[in-house]
Amino acid sequence: MSIFKKLFKQTFIYGLATVLPRALAIFLVPLYVLVLGKEQFGIYASLMAFLILGNVMLSYGMETAFFRFINREEFQKEKVQSTALTSLLISTLLFLSIALFAREKLASFLEFKTEYVSYGILILALDALAVIPFVWYRAHEKPMRYAFIKIFNVCINLGFNLFFFLVLPIWAEKETNSIWNSIYLEEGKVAYVFIANLIASGITFLILLPIYFKVRISFDKIIWKKMIRYAFPVLIAGIAFSINEAFDKILLKYLLPSDIADAEVGVYAACYKLGVFMTLFATAFRLGIEPFFFNHSKHENAKQTYATITKYFTVIGSLILLFVVVYLDIFKRILIPDPSFWDAIVIVPIILLANLCLGIYHNLSVWYKVTDRTKYGAYISVIGALITLILNFALIPIISYKGSAIATLAAYGSMMVISYFIGKKYYAVPYDLKKIGFYLLLSVVFSVFSFYIFEGNLWLGTALLLVFIAMIYFSEKKEIKQILKR
Q: How far apart are CA 409 and CA 393, in angstroms?
C-alpha cells in the first residue's frame, strides 16, 4: 500500500470515527426536546458545557505531547507511553477523590443537583482514563479498532437513551411492581441522559483496560517534565477553544435571572444544534485535509494549492449556509419538534456563519502549522476566548441568547481575520480574496433576505439558492471541469 493510499485510508477512518458520533447524536435532539422540555434541556446543555471544559483540563495536553515524544529518538517509546499513562491515571484519581468528596459543595456552588454533579464527575474521570489508550491505538496505527470503539461508545449511549425514554416508560406502566417501575423517573428525566453517558463511558473504559496492562504503570520524571512543558501551551489553547465552543451556555445560566435561566439555555442550545450541518462539514473537511497540508508543504505549488482549497471550502460552506437557512423551517420541525423552542431560531443563521468562519480559520491556519509557529494558534484562540467572554458578559443581560450568538460570530470571525493578516507575514498564500469575499458576502445577503426580511418564504429562498448555485457554476465552470477530469 502506498504511503498516500495508507494516509487516505487512515484519515477517512479517523474522520468517520469523529464525524459519525456527532451525526448520530443529532438523532437524540428531537427526543430530548419532546421529553425533557426547555428547563431540563437547559440543565443538560449547561452541564455538558462544563464537561467539555473539564475534558480539556483533565487531559491537559498530554494527548498531543504523547504524539510528539513517542517519535523522538532520544526517548524510549515504552517510557513515553507508560509515563503519559501513569500521569493521567494519578491526576484523574486525585480529581475523582477530591471532586466526589466535595460534590455537595460543588453542586451548591454550580446550582445543580448533587446527583447530576456526581454523574458529571464520574463521566469526566472515565473519559480522562480513556485518553491515552485511544492515543495508543492511533500511535500504533490501529484505526479500525479506534473507530470501532468510538462508534460503539455512541451506539451504547444512543441505545440507553432510547431505552430510558421510549421503552422504560412502557414497561414501568405495564408492570407496576417490577424493577422497571422502581428505576422509572416521573420527574427529573434529564438524569437519564447522564446515566446513559456514564454507562457508555464505563463500558468503553472496560474495553480499553487491556491497554493499561500492555503499557504498564511506570513513571520517568525527566520525560514527564518535558512532556508537561510541551503540553502546557496545548492546554491553554484547549481551554480557550472550549470557552469559545461552550462557555456561552454556562454564562447564560448565571447571568440571567434564575427563574428563566434554564429555559433560555434550553431553547438556545436546542437551536444551536441546527448549526451542526456546518460543523460536520468543517470537521470532516479539516480531518481530511490537514494531513495533506503537511505532506504537500514542500511542493513547489503548495501555496497556490492551499489557496484553491480554501476558496472551494468557502464556496461549499457558503452554499451549505444558504441551503440550511432557506430550508430552516423544515429542519426545525424535524430536529426541534416542540414549537416552544422556536423562539431562539433567530440565532441559527448567525451560528451557521460563525461555524463557517471557524472552518475558514482552520484552513487559514496552515501557515503556523507548516512553519512550526503553533504558539500563534494558542494566541489567536485566547484572543477569541476573550472576545467571547467580554461580549457575553456585556450582551447577555441585555439581549439574552442573541448576545451569545453575536459573541460566537465575533470571536470566530476575529480569529479568521487575525490568522489571515499574521499569516501574510510568515507564509503568504495567494488567496483569491475577491472570490472568497464575493461568495461569502452573497451567501450572507441572500440568507438575510430569505430568513429575516421575507421570513423564511420557501419559494423566494429556493429561487435565491438556485441563483447562487448558477453563479458558482458559471464562475467556476472551467476549474470544476478540470477537477472532475483529474
A: 15
